[in-house]
Protein: Na+:solute symporter
Organism: Streptomyces triticirhizae
Amino acid sequence: MSALDWIVVAGYFLVVVAIGWWSKQRVHTVADFFTARGRIPWWLSGISHHMSGYSAVMFVAFAAVAYNDGITVYFWWPLTIGLGVGIGAFLFAARWNRLRAKHDVKSPLEYLARRYNLPTQQVLAYSGAALKVVDIAAKWVAISVLLKGFADIPLEVGIIFTGIATMAYMTVGGLWADVLTDMGQFVVQAVAGFAMLVAVMIELGADFPFTMWGDLPDGHGDPVAGSVTTWLIIAFLFVKTFEYNGGMWNLAQRYMAAPSGTEARRSALLSCGLWLVWPLILFLPMVAAPLIVPGLTAGEESYVALSKELLPAGLIGLMLAGFFSHTMAMVASDSNVITAVITRDIAPVLVPKVRRLTERAQLTFARVTTVLFVSLSMTIAITTRGEGFVLDTVVQLVAATMGPISIPLMLGLLPWFRRIGPTAAIVSWAGGLLVWYVVRYQIDGSTEAAIVGLPLLTSLVLYLGIGFLKPEGTAESEELVLSLNTDPDDDGSEERPGRSEVAAG
């Protein structure tokens, strides 16, 4: 990397620091820290929702799939997410927002104690938090792989540097810093993504990408290729519908932070459109990489090799800044919501006096928890190392266990299932995780479709079957679910922030 590249990267970090300190002026309470009190405009919430799904993993693990198998990477990842978010726009988005507006919920799991019972809330909180620690560790490994490829920076140094930078702005700025960093990430990614697309077009000719398919290895133009099967795509569609509409808790926060349920739905539709279109711009150069940097033995290195081959000084730095922004924004997002779960759902049960902390003390506790959580994930990343850890963790562990964790959480919001109680919730969670363990570790030769899809299907069948055979709904839980059908201003129970207040923050 040239001096100009490092100047670009340094400039990006200065912007991140500025965003953190500017956001600090808006954070006075835990409600500001976790949900911005519903004052984030729908368009910013939608962009943040979309960008929170990216990390450096895409430019390592998914770039490897594009290099080895071709365009199928679009069909099993962003297409399934886009369709899933579109479905969730009408099922889940508004209901998440109304939990905050009507019930003062600051954590996606906070409502579970009322919806089911305290044990249900606790098992989902602990298992989800443990999953997120490993998930974030995989993202630290991904960014360190890119740093080593671009600048030969040791893995440990890359993880520590990126982690400390993330903590520096996240702990002071909360959700405001997170969504504004997502917006900055969107701008950086747009410039860098189009720069790479144009560079590949110059290299391969103006008719790119239409004529490249015959020159690529066999099968690289097929929607289903390599280890990707039709059943895997279907499994991912089901998993991503739950994951990206709240099963991945930080994305529920984006809906909660919008001004109203109606505007949360608009933000979901914006995110849906971005998922269906924008990843094509990013993936087409990855798919074309075998024509420009052929013969790589490790597909994880393909995007780094492509950047070095095609991009001039300055743009490589911008690309690296984009990798930083992807990972830092996603980790900041996950850290914020995990902190919310720990401070709102786990800690008060373990140490009841936490409930009696002052607003200032609660905010300090949230910030300290953020630092500890990020530090733990960095430690796991440093001790595990290795590119294979990235793909195995993100695709198999996270995707497969997301279903059992999210089924009770997500379906518990919908009125059709309001009489389903805690027995169904806990059994479906335990049954799904058990099936994942058996399929993943006890049965030889299990396909990825089975590893990803069967746990979710098991949880879904158990939740619905036990729930309808043994309804346990209470008057309080049914009232909670039914209250999420309308915005506060529609039923007169409460007024939401006006547009001028949202704009002023």
The longest helix spans residues 155-204.
